[in-house]
Amino acid sequence: MRGDFARGELPARKTKETKKFVPLKTRKSITGVLFALPGLLGFIVLVAIPFGMTVYYSTTNGVGQFVFLDNYIDLFHSTTFQLALVNTMRFTLIGVSMLLILSLALSVMFYHHIKKSTFGIHAIKSAVLLPIVIPTASIVLIIQILFEPYGIINGLITTLNGSPVEWLYTAPYSFWILIVLFLWKNCGYCMVILLAALDTIEPSIHEAALCDRANGFQRFFYITLPLISTSVFFVAIIGIIGIYRMFRESYLLMGDYPHESVYMLQNFINNNIRNLNYQRLSSASIVFLLFVTLFVVLLLKNNIGKGEE
Amino acid sequence: MLKWKGQIKLTSKVILLSILIVGLFTACGEGRTKSDDITVYYVKSDRIVDIAINDFNKSSKITLNAVGFDSEQEMDDQFINNLNTRQQVPDVIVLNDKTTLDLSKIYQSTFLELDTLMDQDQSFNESFYIEAAMDGGKIDDEQIFLPVSFNLPVLFFDTDKVQSAGVTITPEADIDTLFSEIESHMDSISQNDKMSTLLNLYQKPILTLLFRAGSVEILNGKGEYVLEKEELNKLVDYAKIIYDEQEKAYRVAEMYGNDFSALASNALFLLWDNINLPYDVRAFDSLYQAGGMDNIDLMTIPAFKDGERAAIINLYGAIIKSTVNEGASFEFLKTLMDSYAVSTNEVVYTTPVSRSSYDEYLRHLKQKKNVAQSGRSPITIYPMSDAMEAKLQELVYDISVCIIPNTMIENILEESFGPYLAGSRTYDDCFADFERTLQIYLEE
Amino acid sequence: MYKPGIWSKVSYVILVLIAVVVIMPIVMMVIGSVSEPGHIEANYSLIYDEYNFSNEYATLKTTTSTLTIKQYLTVLLGKLDILLGFWNGIYLVVPILMFGLVIAVTGGYAFAKFDFWGKQIFLFAYILVMLLPTQVTLVPQFIFFYQINLIGSRWAVILPGIFSTFGVFLIYQFMRKIPDAPIESAGLEGASELRIFWSIVLPQCRSGMIAYIMLTLIDYWNMIEQPLILLNSEAQYPLSVLLRTVNRNELGIAFASGVLYMLPMFLLFMLISDDLVEGISNTMPQIMKKGGKN
User: Fold this and answer.
1) Is the bond into A172 cis (omega within 30 degrees of 0)?
2) What Å distances lie between residue C183 and C37, C56, C285, CA to CA?
3) For labelling, which of A292, B9, B150, C139 has a CA lying 20 to 30 Å from the CA of A191?
4) Do C49 and B422 touch (CB under 8 A)?
5) Closest residue of A to B79, CA-based?
């Protein structure tokens, strides 16, 4: 019975039938599995198995014969794939780093120089969070209205007697327009996240640093940054996911074959769906996955050291 | 540690079960046994296929399961889905020039090579069909597609009018002469708002039309890039000439509405595409005559390479590799190629690739006379004259190259050069764009 | 830490400017939605080559000449396909949110507070999958659904959304913060697992659940690739996909449609953004002690 327990005296084994308490560790195993089961099942069926199929397609040819790495070799020879790979990495690197820099800068500025009770601060915070709410197609329409060859911006340029530019179809503008779009969408809540993280730093730490005559930069890099490193990491992850979402905007703005500086892996995969080229698209997917794995492993290793310590 | 074993057992069971389930489904899709029926996919608007289906059913014991689609896109989507999931793949598919499939990329894994079938079949004689068309169905020297009908754009004009307008054009002219004459005429009547030089009444994008008619080669039979920049330059420039004229032409067309004679009098050249060559030529002939113009001549748009005449195959069939009934599928395609019919309303659906069908058709038109409505008044459609028959025969047998259009490349062409035609971008920019996109497409 | 000084004015100004610039497109949209449809079409359709014969440029002016709610009236009262698209969106997103929440909290709880065989592997796999774009998993999923005949059914879109790994991961992070002590003591008092879960754990991750709802809503309300590939007919497409065609063909009502589509998210957002921010700020610091390789 319950009352019979003496604290600290725990039975050695658990069975589901008894109402006796069991050691935390062993108890956790079975119920844990049960709790996780629906999710795991769904994951296996909807993700793991399709992924198995992807691996299958990437190592066989069109008639089902196992060809090991031939598809991958063929893939890497394709200049289009190389282009897509390079573009994706470039876009991700530039996009995510700018996102981090910008949101860090903004949040630090916010944190240090804005009093909580300043008029309209709450409104500003809400305002910068708004961009993620807009539907993709609508923001695309606005961009088109502004940047299409006969759009507003070119109209302004012509009235000022300049020569219009094809913003969406020329390098480097198409690339930067997408980057700006990405930043516009994501900086808001990244700033909020980082601001929240900054708020949790005890002011005493900063004061202690000031006493030690640390200047602004030193304080930032040696104290602030490590203390919020986990949030920075989170923002980086969210940034990467956001970069992938940019495919929607890119596709709506520039179609199947955008300008070559923004032709990314998703375009490659998308177009190969139309070609029925399963071998290509599966191998491309696996390559993508391998890169992501590498990235995650690297980040995990580097992040373990940091922390609140 | 007994619990751990329980864990492992449980999860392994789950995994195995799921794999089993999926495996079962994939297995269900495969394993078709040889049966006595074949499935054919076609688009309903290709009416000639209905005729072929009837003929086939009458003469063959094989059950024909004909699946008709309302649009090319639907058929292509269904086809691709079936191929991907290996379920209910048809035996034969009949494609037209509006297909959305990227044939150059999927043919190797999807379609059967027909050379052996053609050789084995005693009743099949290649010379029955226009040679250029048969060649057009080959990829990398292997027959993949069997052509059923073809199409080429035609320029109609009244020789008297043309002469009096000071344009020297003969049907044998090459493309440069043709367009320089057109351009100079356009300049000379630029003040005249009621007259247009060239009326392109068919809505197809003009670049694609010229691209097909001019038989500009971008990829050769082996899929290698062989584009000559000169040719493309000419193509785009000539397209621009027609494009610039179009606004005026549409206004003229609006002015005269359905009155064909008025229209024909006020547009020097009428460009028609996607017509049924013999039937429509006869009709136009009569229409012109009703308008008092007796000396009608027609010419095709010359190809870019001297002495060549190009057409496109606008209806063709292929057999899917996974079929279990090759013989019956081939029989059906043969029937399709030989199908030719004149319905009670005199509407024929194709310009046939089969020589005998074509000749018979011409003969038929030489005997028929009927009345049709043009604008407000009925006009008589006269039997085709001997001269016209000879001309049409010469036209068709003169076709030296037939191609199956590659809609993907045509799309890239249209998109890259659209801004140049509209005047918002320079040619070189567009060309660079075109080359880049084409390169990406080829290597995908 | 707040330091008063010259920078505070400057920062304030900068932030205000940024806020204004950031809202600009939204403002454009809203203004566009209350403008005369004819003006909008005449002006903005110039960006599309096929409508632009005179080589004119679009301008900003004409949109503010008259203010009218005609667009909204047209859409709400007349355009059944747009309303259908709106309803399709709800029909797709609500099951994803509901069932997905269940999956996310149960899964998150399991990963956060339990230890079982394969946990590390699965966690690692979850992170990987989270970082992949949809295209990679979409095609095999399509084949799978085709074989069990679910293509064209809404569940082909809903099911992957429910089992999305992002939800589990998010809740996992929130739950790690929840102290073990109450759970243990409840267990010692003899509460069943479910009871513990329901009464102790769940209330504490309320902000996590809100974060999940908000982020998932944003993601799936705007989805484009999945419906296009997994659904068959236009009648099933949510408005996110249909807006594309509306923007092309019916510019006159495009803005109003966009605003209407934005509305639910916007309202929800206004309601819970405070909670959201608070939740994030309370749990962020402890988040991301990377559990992947512990």
Assistant:
1) yes
2) 60, 69, 22
3) A292
4) yes
5) A276
pLDDT of residue A5: 42
Beta-carbon separation of B443 and A278 below 8 A: no
Task: Inspect the interface and report whether the beta carbons of B247 and C117 lie closer than 8 Å.
Answer: no
CATH number assigned to the domain comprising residue A80? 1.10.3720.10
Contacts of B424 in chain C (CB under 8 A): 55
With contact defined as 3+ CB pairs under 8 Å, the chains touching C are A, B
Here the ipTM equals 0.82
Q: Which residues of A156-171 are buried (b: 16+ CB within 10 A; e: fewer)?
A: eeeeeeeebebbbbee
Query: How many structural domains are present in chain C?
Result: 2
Question: Side chain identity at B282, as an amino acid letter?
Answer: R
Classify burial at A220, counting beta carbons within 10 Å of its beta carbon; exposed 0-12, middle 13-18, buried 19 or more: middle
In chain C, which among 86-105 make CB contacts under 8 A with chain A? 102-104
CB of C29 within 8 Å of any CB in chain A?
Answer: yes
Q: Hey, which chains touch A, using 3+ CB pairs under 8 Å?
A: B, C
Give B-chain residues touching A35 at CB under 8 angstroms: none
* pLDDT grade for C285, boundaries at 50, 70 and 90: very low
Task: State the smallest CA–CA distance between residue A71 and chain C in angstroms.
Answer: 17
Instruction: Give residue B94's pLDDT.
Output: 93
Range of the domain at C137: 79-286
Higher pLDDT, C150 or A243: A243
Query: A184 with A276, same domain?
Result: yes
* Contact yes or no for A62 and B22 at CB 8 A: no
Q: What is the pLDDT of residues B352-375, one digit of tens each?
A: 888 888 888 788 778 777 766 655
Would C291 be classed as within a structural domain? Answer: no
Euclidean distance between CA atoms B392 and B390, whole angstroms = 5
Q: Which residues of A touch B11 (CB under 8 A)?
A: 33
Inter-chain contacts counted by CB atoms under 8 A, chains A and C: 329
Nearest Cβ partner of C147 from B4, B7, B25?
A: B25
Contact: A43, C125; criterion CB under 8 Å: yes
Cα torsion A198, A296, A252, A82 to 10°: value is 140
Asked if C155 and C119 sit in the same domain, the reply is yes
More confident residue, B33 or C196: C196
- pLDDT number for residue C291: 37
Residue B67 CA: distances (Å) to CA of B47, B92, B94, B333: 13, 10, 11, 15
Chains A & B: contacts with CB separation below 8 Å: 77
Transcribe B60-84 into DSSP letters: -SSEEEEEEESSHHHHHHHHHHHHH
pLDDT digits (tens, 9 = 90+) for B310-336: 888 889 999 998 888 888 889 898 888
The string of pLDDT tens digits covering residues B255-304 is 877 777 777 778 888 888 777 777 777 777 777 777 777 777 888 888 88
Write out the two tokens for A122. 């709450």
Dist. CA C15–CA B26, nearest whole Å: 57
- Note whether B444 contacts A277, CB cutoff 8 Å: yes
Residue B12 has pLDDT above 70, yes or no: no
pLDDT at residue number B203: 63
Q: Which of C41, C57, C74 is the last residue of a domain?
A: C74
What percentage of chain C carries pLDDT values higher than 70?
85
Q: How many CA atoms lie less than 13 Å away from A301 in the CB half-sphere?
A: 5
Along chain A (309 residues), what's the average pLDDT of each consecutive run of 10 residues?
44 47 59 79 84 81 74 86 89 90 85 70 78 85 84 82 79 88 88 79 73 68 74 82 87 83 85 78 84 77 46
CATH number of the domain residue C157 falls in: 1.10.3720.10
| pLDDT at position C25 over 70 | yes
The pTM assigned to this predicted structure is 0.79
> How many angstroms away from the CA of B18 is the closest CA of chain A?
7
Select from A113, A247, A302 the residue whose CB has the most chain C CBs within 10 Å, as the one to mutate to test that interface: A113
